[in-house]
Amino acid sequence: MANVLLIISPQDYQDKEYSDTKAALEAADHIVFTASTVEKAHGKLGGIVECDALMYEANAEDYDAVVFIGGTGCFEYFEDDAAHSVAKDFYEAGKLTCAICAAPGILANCGLLDGKEATCWPGEENHIQEKGAKYTATPVQRDGLIITGNGPEAAHEFGQTIADAL
User: Fold this and answer.
1) In whole angstroms, how far apart are CA 57 and each of 3, 146, 160, 164?
2) pLDDT digit string, tens, across residues 6-35
3) Which CATH superfamily does the domain covering 3-165 fall into?
4) pTM of the predicted model, to two decimals?
């Protein structure tokens, strides 16, 4: 049993990516916590999530993995110092550092995808490649501590891959 932190944007996170990833992790008996920059986040498809923590308070020592959920709202984190700090802290602590849909761009922007095999939402591949990622175009890709997924249809497999890696 592991503690996993899902990070969603305050507005327009991708509901299916969040719910399917969370469900796969919980089905494997992992404990899932949700963080954002607000206490109540709103999904692109109408979901509302009461967050357990604020993103900038996240401490890698308290969790076994971090997962950035995509959706159009995640672009808010592309240049966000707090999001970059969280991603780097988890990775440097030897914890799984994961992202789905457009969110691998967050990992790319803080240097974590340089030289790594990764996937992302079609249309974002140039962005991650410019930051050094080896784009694979697969639904889910694992390279060491980094796990990436390409979008909502891959969310269950993405969550299962994280669960299995834990």
Assistant:
1) 16, 22, 26, 27
2) 999 999 999 999 999 999 999 999 999 999
3) Class I glutamine amidotransferase (GATase) domain (3.40.50.880)
4) 0.98
